[in-house]
């Protein structure tokens, strides 16, 4: 199996005024193509910080990060944005859909930056909404959808660019357990059918145990969990 994400001795700190906070203290962690992995850890342990680094939204301080065997610390911001756009799809706890756009246009928007024409964008967006089971709500705005439906639209948006990796930061955190499980089933099916690599940050042990592997962040380091 090939490695898609390789983190070697990754460090990251934040400074605010004269306060210095070392969040990641030498994270070693790799993920194979096609894996479904969860990351757990106490609040403030650095899960979102790690996800932002993996997703190329933020830079690490020390160590090496190889994404698809590319050493991303050598990339400039434009190159990082391009690689992120081609490789990663994001899903967040609070969905972050654009309130004025109907579901279809929330999903088709990322394709605008790829230069696709409107018809092609909307056809692809509708395909993704179908895949996640909310095609009938394509013309609804987020405020006209339930939380679970909004999260499905957000997952369709993450999928529309055919990412190699989906990064989901507490994707079930704002949903009740039944709807959260439906969203989890969707991730499991996407992983099975399309071999998409999926990383799920969660506080929910029941979600974590449905992944192939679960790791924990503790005191700035990855502590291996069940594998
Ligand atoms: N941009 C930032 N500037 C300064 N400190 C930050 C920044 N982002 C995160 N931190 C700090 O880094 C630590 C780790 O934050 P992070 O958001 O990664 O935690 P988390 O594990 O995702 O927590 P939660 O489970 O509550 O979402 C926290 O102490 C936080 O205050
Ligand atoms: Mg977080």
Properties at a glance:
227 residues, alpha/beta, Rossmann fold, six-stranded mixed sheet, four-stranded antiparallel sheet, binds magnesium ion
Backbone CA Rg: 17 Å
Q: State mean pLDDT (0 to 100 scale).
A: 95
> What is the CATH class?
Alpha Beta
Topology pattern, helix = H, strand = E: EEEHEEHEHHHEHEHEE
Give the full name of the CATH homologous superfamily. Answer: P-loop containing nucleotide triphosphate hydrolases
Ligand inventory reads: adenosine-5'-triphosphate, magnesium ion
Q: From the 3D structure, determine the CATH topology.
A: Rossmann fold
Physical arrangement of strands within the biggest beta sheet: 6-7-8-3-9-10
Descriptive notes:
With 227 residues, the chain is of the alpha/beta class. The chain has helices at residues 47-54, 77-87, 103-112, 118-131, 147-159, 177-194, 205-208; strands at residues 3-16, 19-32, 36-41, 62-67, 70-71, 88-92, 165-169, 197-201, 213-218, 221-224. It has a six-stranded mixed sheet with strand order 6-7-8-3-9-10, sandwiched between helices. A four-stranded antiparallel sheet has the order 2-1-4-5, covered by helices on one side. A hairpin with a 2-residue loop joins strand 4 (62-67) and strand 5. The model has no long low-confidence stretch (mean pLDDT 95). Bound molecules: adenosine-5'-triphosphate and magnesium ion (MG).
